[in-house]
TrEMBL record:
Listed InterPro entries: ATPase_NBD
Protein name: Uncharacterized protein
PANTHER family named among the record's database cross-references: ALPHA KINASE/ELONGATION FACTOR 2 KINASE, HEAT SHOCK 70 KDA PROTEIN 12A
Superkingdom: Eukaryota
Length: 175
């Protein structure tokens, strides 16, 4: 808990310092804090994040936890509005709203969520969030294994990610 709380406290204090440079007299009760969390986080884990934020000095009455995919969907909706000047949820002639598929690609996981933007601009979740261990780390590991396999076949050597092999030295061999 301490590590999360101190991290949030650092971010909060850094933000407030920068804000005071730009708006010196803003009352702190005007600030709403939104902490994004993965969509597949358990209730217990969300409570942990809320407690860490409270320990960091963020008032509970000014704190909202938002799912990362929802935040991304709202950003997409706002981007569409900025580009067209019309609310991205307005109904088309076929009577259906615009749908968004949000892929939240993180280091270790990918979370997938689908939303429909309703006529009033609100988001309707089309399916329960899902995901799995397909994030960037897994892609990197698969690529390294792929490169090892190629180099072992081309060079006849047993190469391992653990040996710190610099694959760029084998560029000519691959061509």
């Amino acid at each position: 808990m301490k590590v999360f709380a101190e991290s949030l406290k650092f971010l909060k204090n850094n933000f407030l310092e920068i804000l005071k440079l730009r708006i010196p007299s803003i009352p702190l009760h005007y600030i709403s804090w939104v902490l994004t969390v993965p969509a597949i986080l358990t209730d217990r884990a969300k409570q942990f994040m809320r407690l860490a934020a409270l320990e960091a000095g963020i008032p509970g009455t000014q704190l909202t936890l938002a799912y990362e995919p929802e935040a991304a969907a709202l950003c997409c909706r706002e981007s569409a509005y900025q580009g067209t000047g019309h609310l991205a949820g307005s109904k088309s002639s076929s009577g259906t709203g615009r749908s968004l598929l949000i892929l939240d690609c993180e280091r270790g996981t990918v979370d997938v969520t689908a939303y429909e933007i309703m006529k009033n601009g609100r988001l309707k979740e089309l399916h329960e969030p899902t995901g799995g261990p397909w994030g960037g780390t897994m892609v990197n590991q698969a690529f390294m294994k792929f490169m090892e396999d190629i180099l072992e076949k081309k060079c006849g050597q047993n190469l391992s990610m653990n040996t710190g092999v610099n694959f760029s030295i084998y560029k000519d061999t691959l061509n």
